[in-house]
Amino acid sequence: MERSKLRTLMLWVIRLLCVLALSVHAHPDPNHDNVIDLLAALNMSHQINGVARLQSPSSVTYRIRPRAPHLILPREYSHFLYSNLQGSMGVHLVGHQAVSSSATLFSLSSSSSPILQIISSTLNNTLRLDYQSGGGVEGLTSFLFPRRNPFSRQDWVQLAVSLERHRLAFFVDCQEAVVIPIKSEEKINLELPQDVGITLASTPGKKDSKFSVSF
Questions:
Q1: Rounded Cα gap, residues 29 and 89, in angstroms
Q2: Phi, psi (deg, nearest 5) at residue 49
Q3: What pTM was computed for the model?
Q4: pLDDT of residue 211
Q5: Exposed (0-12), middle (13-18) or buried (19+): which is 78, by Cβ within 10 Å?
Q6: How far is CA 38 from CA 22, 80, 184, 194, in A?
Q7: What does DSSP assign to residue 101?
Q8: What is the pLDDT of residues 32-68, one digit of tens each?
Q9: Whole-number Å distance between alpha carbons of 111 and 166
Q10: CA 118 to CA 101: how far, in whole Å?
């Protein structure tokens, strides 16, 4: 089951580079209607201050600098996520992080506070997920990836993070999933507010969260 799920996730990563999926269960034919291509939604092919487009014969990559604005998806994608999220979500990307940096890979937030954020540090070699708990815990609950941060290798990394209320799973470079069961009092709150914002490479309102990364 885990191996089948991994193959499905990695197919989406390679094809779409950076996506948000509203279902992470294994299917023979993934339903791309439930996938948001973050790079396409941000219209990254157009010039954005602090974002460089690099093209080779085989691929296109985007280099994001800290001076780039917060890369927040248009509101129609937030509405789509709010209207269609049903119990599970996955974030899938291919990226390369700058040395000696610490910032947000991906975040969901409301107008008042962060809801979920994936933070990578090559300073202390940690990869962390912060999220709002549905068990009555105030503030954000945090889970550390239980191994060395793959982005610390200074190489391209394929990363997928699967979130369900009672289960968190990390997939790195086609290896076996690292699964973290979640206690009832720490369950992930996937009931998003209507004003949810989707942001790539930073957390809005936090200047030091901006990423120096290539996708």
A1: 17
A2: -60, 130
A3: 0.83
A4: 62
A5: buried
A6: 13, 13, 31, 19
A7: -
A8: 678 888 888 888 778 888 888 888 787 788 888 888 8
A9: 26
A10: 14
C-alpha angle 10-129-83 in degrees, rounded to nearest 5: 70
Alpha-helical regions (H) of 17-97: 38-41, 75-84
**Model pLDDT, residue 195:** 94
Cα–Cα distance measured from residue 215 to residue 18, given in angstroms and rounded to the nearest whole number: 7
Averaged pLDDT for residues 194-207 = 88
- d(CA 22, CA 45) in angstroms, rounded, equals 24
Q: How far apart are CA 198 and CA 207, in angstroms?
A: 16
Nearest-angstrom CA–CA distance, 213 and 17 = 13
The mean pLDDT value of the chain amounts to: 80
Nearest Cα residue to 12 out of 145, 26, 82: 26
At position 123, the amino acid (one-letter code) is L
For residues 104 and 206, what is the distance between their CA atoms, to the nearest angstrom? 10
CA distance 215 to 212: 10
DSSP letter for 70, please.
P
